[in-house]
Structure formats: structure tokens, C-alpha cells
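Q: Hi! First time doing this. I have a protein sequence and I read that you can turn it into a structure. Is that right? Here it is:
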Amino acid sequence: MPRRPVAVFALASWAHRDIFPADLVTRLRQLVDIDPMTTFTSFQGAGAAAALAEADILLTGWGAPRIDADVLAAAPRLRALIHAAGTVKARVDPVVFERGLVVSSAAEVNAVPVADYTMAMLVLGAKRVFDRAKRYATAVDGAPPDWLSGDGTGLHGCTVGVVGASRIGRLVLDRLRSFDVQVLLYDPYVSPVEAVRLGAERVDMDDLCRRSDLVTVHAPALPETHHLLDARRLDLLPDGAVVVNTARGSLVDTEALTRLCLTGAISAVLDVTDPEPLPPGHPLFTLPNVLITPHLAGAQGRELRRLGEFAVAEVGRFVKGAPLLGRVEPEQLPYIA
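A: Yes, that's right. Below is the predicted 3D structure, encoded as C-alpha cells:
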């Protein structure tokens, strides 16, 4: 009888519990042998060594240790790494690909709630909901009812600048088709023809900043994207523009953004910051025209199960020798988020 594939969980306990509930573990155990109660956040120790020695598949997620040459040396049978979360950039050493392992990520699944969050924030940001709500909450008798003013607000008729036609960027572009907006796209790897197919006009970054009422950032953190929205480009934004960042904090110059938000020239919705988190008492936390959320745009709560469903399905495809839907190629590693 041929040996059944052996899988090992390597992710934080909370992620293990929420991403792989009991029914998904039952489905997984129909495909592979796996200890449903054990997950590793470190590969140090005898227990981890014994598990790695038998593992054909690693099921990783948030809290997983980095998979490098030492891990591979302890896992001679390992053939696949299936990541039940977003990016694998911090988890996978390039040696994994050199060894010939198959790598899969649930990034496509995790992109969906980020795109949904982005659209919600574009709608709310265009209505100036955050500062108007705070003014409403602090209004006193006899004060001018400026919280009622809706002049120049609303997403209808706006120009939205999308920075990066990444997985999430493309989902946002697709969702924007449902709104009566003009869409601009900055992505040096997208041709003008493809941009039109995506429902946007391809422009350079300066032009995007000059023309956009709202800018939403979906590019990876690379040396060439550091402070892509720097002081000069932020100054190009029209008065009242809104910046939404769900990508990486380093893409936006925090000091320059703070200066403009302090004057009220622009507003911001930040699910990521630089540094992350911002230090206590940072001015951005207290400004009425800024909303900062704790890196929660990706899968949360009930959404986490979808990552587990995808990962279990990928295991099934791998065991059957079918192509993996979330396969990560080695040349993609430097450019993913």
C-alpha cells in the first residue's frame, strides 16, 4: 500500500483554530495524515524535528516560522508549502524554490476582504464621513450645523486614482465599474491597452495625483516604491482629496501626510502606517479627517475560514497532481507584497 502524504501545521494557535475549524480538519484528514491538534511556530526541539522528518506538506499561516535551508535539511520528504494566508514573502527563503518545492498562497482569497474594505472606505471617504461624524458628535447648542454640509461630497462623479494593478488593485478596479467614476491607474507594468481593459486610464504617478479626488494604494513595498507618495506628490493632490492605504505604510511619506492632514488640505484612511504601529500620541490618531485601523483589512473573524477552505482544496489538488490555483513562482517572490 502506498504511503499516505503527511502534512504538518505551522502557524499561530489562534490562526490554526480559526482558519482550520473541525469540519475542515476532517476534510483535510481524508486527504493526508496530520496531527489535528499540533501546530508549530518554531521548528526548534525534538517534536518539531520528528514532524519535519515525516512531512510531505507544510500548512503555514500567520505566525509560521521562516522556511529556510535549515528547515529543508530537517525535512527531506517535503514537497509542498501551502500558505493559508496572504503573502509568503517573509516566510519563504528562495532556497525553497531551488529545492523544487511547490509553493501556494491564499493571497487571492485574502485579497477579497481588502478590496471590500477599500471600497467601503472610498465611499465613506468621499462623503467625508469621518470628520463630519466627529463634528456631529461634538456639536454644542447654538453651533453652526456644519456637520450637515454635503457640498462637494459623494463618490458619484469623482476621479479615483488606483496605484498598482496588483491582485487587490484589480479587484478594486473591477468593483469601481459599478460606480459612476473616472478611474486612473498607475502601474508601470500595465500597458495603456490593458488599463482600458481593466476599466481605467493609465497615467503617470504625478498626473494621477493632480487629477484624483481619491487615491487608493495597492502596490508592493519595494525599494522603488518607497515613499511613492512623497511630499512633492502629496502636495499635487487637489484640496479635499482622500488617500486610502491598505498596502504597506512605507509607500506613503508619513511626515508629509501628517503635515497636509493637519492643515485639512487632504484626508486619509490608513490600515497600514510607517512605522507600524505609529507611536502613541501621534497627531494622525487625533485628527478628525484621518481614520487609522490596525491592519485589519485582510481576512478577519468569519472570513478566516475561507483561507482554510482554499488551503484544504489546494492540498487536494496537490495530492491528485492537479495544478495549484495559488501557486507562487520564484520570479514573483521579490515583487509580491
